[in-house]
């Protein structure tokens, strides 16, 4: 039985998804599905949004944008992240990105029941963009994409390769593989002094408000086991995926070096190398549209007003195409809801 409870965000509800015992030994796992509004049984389209690392769902302006276009909106806080973190767990820690598949598919089942079979547009930011792309490729290979009603994908600055010197992607990655089985929770990068986070939160002269326990300004520590899982995901993506659905990739037009001074990193991606996103975007598969947003931050929808508006404009234009494409495709295939 579906049980919704009030969320920390006014006007939103949440549902806890029980996932069983953590294979990495940190107790019982849960994920949290967040829903904007009350009823969605008339919605033709729905969104399932997935956050990145040191992140969780608080992006009500993104939800409002989709809601204004008639989309039902859902967001998933993955296990050990945000609302889903439990005492004694290492935030965001996993040693296998495929372990997210169960909660992602559970969420799509709940959306299907609530909407009567709305077409689902998956949305992923940063590490979440990598996670959902790998999941959709596995779903397609199982022949289950249509059964889950998934018809589109939007990626917001997806993490498609390891930023930094080339030696980290070669020698460094080989070292991770060697030590991950025995030192999986060893910290390879501690929290920073702030950097990107100081350009966002209102306590640091940013525009946005969110829970600093769930999204600390300096980020969470990066562990060997987690970054090794990410690098295995990168390697799989670099061999080529096919997510099975049309996709939009939004990113900044340039990167900036992350420094403690927020004024120096207000315009540009201070987290990822956008040249790597451009290089590997073709590995997502299917019909891909790639749009660089001038002066956008890492999360293009948390940028300054002008690039943020440009990002929403580009998303809106693509959604216009996507809705018409999905309707014409459905008509050709004689789809029926419910």
From TrEMBL:
The molecule here is called Alpha/beta hydrolase
Q: Per its UniProt record, what Gene3D superfamilies does this chain match?
A: alpha/beta hydrolase (3.40.50.1820)
Keyword check for Plastid, yes or no: no
Pfam families in the cross-refs: Hydrolase_4 (PF12146)
UniProt keyword list: Hydrolase
Question: Which InterPro entries does this one have?
Answer: AB_hydrolase_fold, Hydrolase_4
Q: Where is the Serine aminopeptidase S33 domain?
A: 43-250
Query: Does the record's keyword annotation contain Nucleotide-binding?
Result: no
Whose protein is this, by species? Answer: Mycolicibacterium agri
Task: State any single GO MF term.
Answer: hydrolase activity
Residue ranges of the TM segments: none
